[in-house]
Design a protein that fits this description.
- The protein is α+β, with helices and mostly antiparallel strands.
- It is built from three helices and seven strands, in the order ββααβββββα.
- The strands form three sheets. A three-stranded antiparallel β-sheet has the order 1-6-7, with no helix packed on it. A two-stranded antiparallel ribbon has the order 2-3.
- A hairpin with a 5-residue loop joins strand 6 and strand 7.
- The protein starts with a strand and ends with a helix.
């Protein structure tokens, strides 16, 4: 599978996101890498050094977003519409096409503050990160299972 960047979010206009600067972590250690997911989007051949540059230091992927974006939720809060609700510790890092042609978002959690951090540091504990990785893997498995039971 080839890497196929396809940035669509910026076409929506800047009412849907805010550019952010990721935290500068003093030491970045690769603790987990989902090789199957990386292969499915054409990033399986990245070296450990490149992996850390892109996913630990947030160096932009080729032909993709130039900087991370904190996404705005645009929702109701306390019975009133609020266009300024957003993610306080996560951001969109890249968009690309998967092996099946679907548009995929690469996002992070715990990578620094955003305009929606509410005085927090925007960080995520290792336990929280493991929990999110496990939940993502479970949802992927369940999605494949459901697709097998209920084909289009």
């Amino acid at each position: 599978m080839d890497y196929v960047p396809d940035v669509k979010i910026t076409q929506l206009g800047d009412d849907f996101y805010d550019p952010v600067a990721p935290a500068d972590f003093p030491k970045t250690v690769l603790r987990y890498r989902n090789n199957a997911a990386a292969q499915s989007v054409g990033l399986g051949e990245l070296s450990e050094k490149e992996w850390i540059e892109h996913f630990g230091r947030f160096k932009p992927l080729k032909d993709n977003l130039k900087q991370p974006l904190a996404l705005r939720y645009h929702g109701h809060q306390f019975r009133n519409y609020n266009p300024n609700i957003g993610d306080g510790r996560g951001f969109l890092f890249a968009q690309m096409r998967g092996h099946d042609g679907r548009l995929l978002d690469l996002g992070t959690k715990g990578s620094g503050t955003t305009p929606y951090s509410r005085q927090g540091d925007g960080r995520l504990t290792l336990l929280g990160g493991v929990r999110e990785a496990l939940a993502t893997a479970y949802l992927k498995f369940r999605g494949e299972y459901v697709k097998d039971i209920f084909p289009d």
